[in-house]
Amino acid sequence: MSGLLHSLIYSLLILIILLPSQLANAANNTQNFHYFCNFNNRGNYTVKSTYHKNLKTLFSNLTSNTKINNYGFYNFSNNQNTSRDRVNAIGLCRGDVRPNECLSCLESSSKNLTQLCPYQKEAIGWYGDEKCMLRYSDHSIFSSVMETRPVYYANNMGGSTDLNEFNSAVRNLLYNLTSKASSGDSRLKYAAGSASGPNDQTIYGLVQCTPDLFESQCSDCLVQSIARIAIDCCKDKKGGRVVRPSCSMRFETNFLFYESTAPSPPPPSTTNKTSSQGKSNTTTVIAIAVPVVAVMVLIIICIYLRVRKPRKKFKTQEDNEDDEIEICESLRFNFDTIRDATNDFVESNKLGQGGFGIVYKGRLSTGQEIAVKRLSKNSGQRDLEFKNEVLLVAKLQHRSLVRLLGFCIEGRERLLVYEFVPNKSLDYFIFDQAKRAHLNWEIRYKIIAGTARGILYLHEDSRLRIIHRDLKASNILLDEEMNPKIADFGIARLFGVGQTQENTNRIVGTYGYMAPEYAMHGLFSVKSDVFSFGVLILEIISGYKNSCIQCGESMEYLLSFVWRNWREESPTNVIDPTLNNDSVNEIIRCIHIGLLCVQENAASRPNMASVVLMLNSHSLTLSRPSEPAFYVDSGAGGLQDNMMQSCEYSLIQESINEASITEPYPR
User: Fold this and answer.
1) Phi, psi of 345 (to 5 degrees)
2) In the chain, how many domains are there?
3) Residues catalogued as catalytic
4) Residue 96 vs residues 151, 154, 188, 369: alpha-carbon distances, Å
5) Which superkingdom does the taxonomy of this entry point to (predicted)?
6) pLDDT > 80? residue 616
7) Residue 258 has pLDDT above 70, yes or no
8) 125 and 158 within one domain
């Protein structure tokens, strides 16, 4: 046995000596390679397994000229024995790349992916300034499956002196290219072109989709990407790109980055996402060398331990919901710590109260201010909702989402600890005639736009796809600068990859903000949140609650009131009189966007990427809204009657919900 051990140690020393020079060559191939491994948690495969063999066979077929068309699109499945071991792959080369160069690019990508994502069942990579994209997975990625995640952004610093004109020229160019690319056939959905910018600049743009998408899917994917320019990608920059599995978009100023008679080399880009890989030779060498050496050392140690002592049995992970909370164990607070921070939950520290409990202000021993949601012991929020909120919010990071600092479970106590947001919630201001006078249009627009970006992050750009299901004024908190932060994820739902809608028998949330398909049939999707956001826009503009408006002696539901004035071409009647009429055109445009969001047919509502785009681009023409869902008639004693009763009740009582509390059942 000692001879074997000596042999292994000798082999390891040889490997360490030779590894740097070998890995340096590998680093050169991965330096311009952006990739993601196992981004949908598909799991791993083992060496010489059926999946491993299928993957190797698939990549060997990839390099055959007979397996790829002249348009640079490749999709292929390899399956042996069972569907569980099926490998699906997509290869796509940029529309200007020649076939031989395309094959070479895909071959390099296949080597990089298997090297950088070893034994992982799903991976995607873009090589050579996105000249080609290669992706493989054990689940279906064909036949009109639009996927917008994972995504990476990059930009080139610097911009134009006339930023408004420059940004407008970029958007118009990319919209025109989107129209051309999406109308392509099943062989190629690609467009490239240029436009004139300010100061005699030339702006070059390129967009492309996987050609298996429908025209509407390609257009939606690219519109979402263009929307990122104004949010967190490359606003005011001279170049930028947004790259997704189903589509990519790029623009540059004063140099041609796609194929021409005299192609220019691309300038360096600064990548804005930490998940993009392959930034330097040193990083790549370390990323590969450390695991290899560690594995070799681990093998030696395992052999040694096998000889010296009996083999230990390892516990397998159980599918127990209670184990999930251990993921966030580092966020657990001691109950005494929270009790001290809130001065034993003294009444003077109370911020608000709702259906699930009371929210208190507190101060930790470090001086940090916190907001503590103490669930009522008889609250309608069950342990399921509590775990849901902890596990979801702990994984979310966005400036328009309230930040979860931790939680506490002790006996029957259930506490959630959030960052303290000093200006309470939106309903505290907007539904109070005196307080809403302090909200000028600039502040209200900032709240609308910030909330839209937060919802877009939940729907499209976070690691998870989340439907909030309870967007309302009391769940929009305001920080010291009146920036919005979406709160209360107790009834939020996580969607799987490719999932577009879900049905539930347990209707939770708040009437007036609920989309009709959810309130009546329990069917919810991203379009349910869009509906709630549309109601929120109209509340912010009008200052009225969604339940009712008193017009003389009659009462009218908010959406009915807005729609009637829109049809009668008197939208200014909807605007809160305390607002400055200098911004009337922008306010009316936001009313228009709100009406598009609350259309009765869910399919007619825009997605949040389009909403963000509408809010940021005043030159974008808006479609004509159809009749909104005023109410859903379910017969006598149905939702319509409930809303009218709510309308009468709200005339005599102001909202007391000043904190992030969700009511467990509809009002």
Assistant:
1) 55, 45
2) 4
3) 470
4) 22, 21, 11, 55
5) Eukaryota
6) yes
7) yes
8) no
3-state secondary structure of 195: strand
| Structural domain that includes position 226 | 152-271
d(CA 293, CA 275): 24
How many whole angstroms separate alpha carbon 180 and alpha carbon 175? 9
Helix (H) or strand (E) holding 457: none
383, 384, 386, 391 alpha-carbon torsion, rounded to 10°: 140
Contact predicate 375/386, CB 8 Å: yes
Is the pLDDT at 142 greater than 80, yes or no? no
Q: State whether 122 and 187 are in the same domain.
A: no
- Total-model pTM: 0.54
Packed helices 584-597 and 608-616: angle between N→C axes, nearest 10 degrees: 170
Cα-flanking dihedrals φ and ψ of residue 288, to 5°?
-90, -40
| Nearest in space to 116 (alpha carbons), one of 287, 298, 281 | 287
Q: Is 76 inside any structural domain?
A: yes
* Helix and strand numbers, DSSP H then E, in the chain: 17, 24
Compute the Cα dihedral for 486, 492, 497, 502 and give only its sign.
negative
Question: For residues 556-587, b (16+ Cβ closer than 10 Å) or e, as one string?
Answer: bbbbebbbebbeeeebeebbbeebeeebeeeb
Q: Are residue 573 and residue 598 in the same domain, yes or no?
A: yes
Name the residue with higher pLDDT: 648 or 556: 556
Q: What is the mean pLDDT of residues 142-171?
A: 79
Handedness of CA 275, 278, 280, 281 (dihedral sign): positive
How far apart CA 74 and CA 93 sit, in angstroms, is 9
159 and 135 share a domain? Answer: no
Structural Rg of the chain based on CA atoms: 28
CA–CA separation, 288 and 285 (whole Å): 5
Residues 414 and 431 in one domain: no
Please give the sequence-ordered ranges of beta strands (E in DSSP) within 197-253, or none if there are none.
202-209, 239-243, 247-253
Same domain, residue pair 22 and 98: yes
